Predict the structure.
Amino acid sequence: MASLVEMRNIVKIYSNGVVANNGVDFQIEKGEIHAIVGENGAGKTTLMKILYGSEQPTSGEILINGESVVFKSPLDAMKKGVGMVHQNFMQVPSFTAAENVVLGHEPSKGIGLDKKKAIEATKELSEQYGLYVEPTAITESINVGMRQRIEILKILYLGVEILIFDEPTAVLTPQETKDLFKAVRVLIEKGKTIVFITHKLREVTEISDRVTVMRNGKIMGTLKTADATREGLARMMVGREVFLDIHKKPVKRGQKVMSVKDLSFVSETGHTMLRDLSFNLYASEILGVAGVEGNGQTELVEVLTGLREPASGSAVVDEKIVTGKTPREVRQAGVAHIPEDRLSNGLSVSASIDDNLIVDRFFKPPFKKGLVIDQQVVENNGKELIKEFGILTPSGELPVSSLSGGNMQKVVVAREFSSNPKILIAAQPTRGIDVGATEFIRDQLVKKRTDGTAVLLISADLSEVMSLSDRIITMFEGEITGVFPDASKVGEEELGCYMLGVKRQTAEEMEALL
Amino acid sequence: MNFNLVLQGIFSALFIASVLRISTALVLPALGGLITDLAGSINISLEGTMLVSAFTGVIVSGFSHNVWLGVLGGILSGILFSALLAYFHLYLGTNIILAGTALNILASGGTVFLLFMLTGDKGSSSTLASGVVPTVNIPFIQDIPFLGTVLSGHNIFVYGAFLLTFLINKLLYNTKFGVHLRAVGEDPVAATSVGINARRTKFMAILISGFLASLGGLNLSMAYLSSFQRDMTAGRGFIALAAVYLGGRKPWGTVLAAILFGIADALSNQLGTLNIPSQLVQAIPYAITILALVVNGIRTRSQLIEQTKRFQERELSRANTEEQK
Amino acid sequence: MKKFFSNPAVREVLRIFIAIGSALLLGFIITLFISKDPIGAYKAFLTGPFTKFNRFGDWIEESITLTLVGLSVAIAFKANMFSMGTQGQLVLGALVSGVVALYVPLPATLRIPLALICAMAVGFIWGWIPGYLKAHLNANEIVSTLMLNTIAIKIYDYLLVFYIKPEDAGYNVSAIFPPEGTLPSFIPNVPFFNNIYTLFTKNTDITIMLYIVILAVIVAYYLVFKTPFGYKLRMIGSNIKFARYGGIDTKKTMILVFAISGVYGALAGAHMTMGIQHSIITNISISMAFEGIIVAILARNNPLYVPLTALAYGYLRAGANIMERSSDMSREMIAIIQALIILFVTAEQILPTVQKRIEERKEQNSNKEESSLPDGGSHEL
């Protein structure tokens, strides 16, 4: 019998010459949970994009139930029963959950909408698959877990049979992940088929029936999960042993360089995003902030770097209050900042690399000479940093947009590191970049810390926080729920409990550890 | 004394009726501006579209001696004109502000150019006998003293404007198209991912805004006046745009804001008799818009301060109750 | 050959030429249908400025104004501020410089600089307002500048009609400026230049504004591309969040950008009254500011190219006036050509847009780690 889905000899070459898929043969059987694993850039997402119609293969063929199909758009794919659960939710923020579920295919009554039916349909689906959502809640005000369920309901509403999940657990708490897995099993019971893109091997062994490993645009093999070991999969993925541990020299932590006291922040909409945060940051340490995204980390970084004003409390560097000051004043106090969203904050992609490398220093000598900026100095600064940080580009005069994601991040890192900061606030420093650049940046962070810089590391990647940090604090709903003075002595599960607010240290306990 | 007369004038039924008449030329394009704004494409060529339609309506009705042909021609020309904007913006990647500016220049110069070619006059079409749309007297209501003067006896565009406000409100919030339009304006990626054609939706939105602006233009040249005057829209297309912002990007808010501008305009006529310089009175609606921008800005800013304050009070009272325990 | 055309600079120039060329061609086609003597009309349009010395002068004068409004727009647009406020600044610049030129009893050497400085100051203030509104109150600059334009025009009309117009004047026009309040010719009236001086002053009104405008271009270029302020301006223009993150005082910079743009707009107004009209007239160039947008776009918002595009564009406008005088065509035909030029030039961005999209997609992909392979990784296995 033919497979439910068969992809034959798929080749995808992007217009910039990148070969993302190189002769891929891939089958999905009905009713299975099929995991696809691979390092960043291995081509797994491209392959799935081709399957659900958002990319067209350069060559190759797709068969569904033995019938050859051509998908020009995701809509074509959905008609044939293939749908994608996006990692970045495709939802209109001001619409209700139900409106988002039926978006594009709203039930109607005459020429008007049948809003009641939309709510009923959402409720029905929600109950049928155990995916709880509040149909009339406004999307922008609900939590990530529910938003993901909306995303799933959205494609179920369209009668999709094959659901592709793109790293669905990346944004979820451990508890939410468990709920998701439960829902996935219900989906299978109801006869759906699931493809699961991930790079977390633990999840592969936990949930999947079969697993396909991709590397450099090719399939390295497909095996039954029962026959696979994590070590074996890891070897197939990268061709060498992955070591999660980063070798860092033990260093004695130095003096206190920043102390945050009772910091609170309220958003424009009146939500309390940070409540009474207190912690200290010391020279020669990496203080990791563990927490599920959206629990105030973004706001914490923005308040500490001068991008937002706190509602109360303060952060003090060198006996000077830095909160409520302008970003430049904060920088002058010795605080550097790798922002979590490099494209919207950290870089001006249409400006040259050289220009991007001077935003924190163009106004002081030697860059400023008399009334003008000395172009020669700007150019030399660019040349040096490009060399030192291994930014792959023929010239600093090219726009940043000509670089790959990893090299863009290197531009940010080069600028922030070269300002010789006392304190480095690194938010999601390796998000969405290739392995090489990730490794480089992690090494640099450790090196900075060894050289005496205080590093505040905020990352959604728990293993990154655990392997890089000396000390860890956990954040949940804008509050610190736990402090762990020795990062090497705390387990993932333990941290998870604090990140979810299941456990919480007392104020006295925490104070003792700060 | 004179002042009293003016006051009487302002609170008279005739004044309210005149506000309705004057507002119509703002309400219609403002609705058009709202639709494009919600679809995520700011249409600054409302001004030009009104002008083109006002011109075409007069010319067609003047040469065909048929008012309705004129109206039809005006509407079609307005829709075509905005189709031009939509095409350049959506298919050729022109910045919509620049394309809109180009079209405004085209409309302003082009209408005068054609007017001169067709009538030999550069200032107005008064040599051409063009039609005026009929007015409607509402039975019964027209006989009620105050209400009759206010509500009855307006031209069809006045009634059309308020009917269209209802319809546009329905369209935006109670039809598939409206939902898709707002989705495209707010999050085009999400909209596209479920198969909504963002470009086509925006195209339609711009065409509808062209339709509404064309009615506004026709109202000027075939109802309010009975001829085309050079640059007769006099910035109404831009005021309409301002009304969208002033009205909080909601249909009724936008219409109310447009009427507010209408009141200011009508007032400047009334106050003119008070020996107050008309230039300054005419500047009032523009100053109001600036003021509205300021107020709106201060409001958003103070919201944050307010929230912060509330938070601090909340925390304080919490701390207090804990102490009492 | 292929390489030559793939050079971005070459393509840019080529594109602008094609845009202007096709707009002119369409204009000709229109003329063919309408004019009884289309060839004559179009010849007057295209060669007009060179047919008589005074026409040449008109062209240069027009180009000076266009350069100034073009710079005003280019500076704002470069910072990605869609200011439409040049019109209001121009009107008030004209008003204030005119008032000084008319009433302040000083000799020319003091009165003219004072008039220019006052105009610039009022332009600065009138530009500052929308800048402040945008920076501190997040007010849409398109709306606020359009409103301020009309307010400026109303103030201008009001003062002209009620205070400046001589009582016995039939029209809403001020008295003619005294020589002390009129910009002198760009050729000094000294014995050595006697002949040329008479030649130019008899036929043209090209004034010392020619030198001021050259200076203004250089200042604008340095301001935008060489100074720290220019760096801030360009960073705000390319990504304001990045500018803020990097420590740039975005609000202050933004306000200054608007204000400086206003200074240039007001200078254009001063040139119109003190250089060309020699009086304060009603309905002073309503459209001129929008012409500035065209000039700036053609120059890609680069101050150095603004005078070039202003000359090219001023040539068309001067030609249109001459065409109207010497044929049966109305000069408003130029509006059609203008609109077409903007549309063609900006629509030609279809090429860059496509390129940008591809780049963005590439960026997205590599960003999400979806398609790009690790750096230097070989694709062949």
Q: What stands out?
A: Chain A has a mean pLDDT of 84. Chain A touches chain B at residues 73-75, 78, 86, 89-95, 99-100, 103-106, 108, 111-113, 154, 264, 266-270, 272, 311-312 (CB under 8 Å).
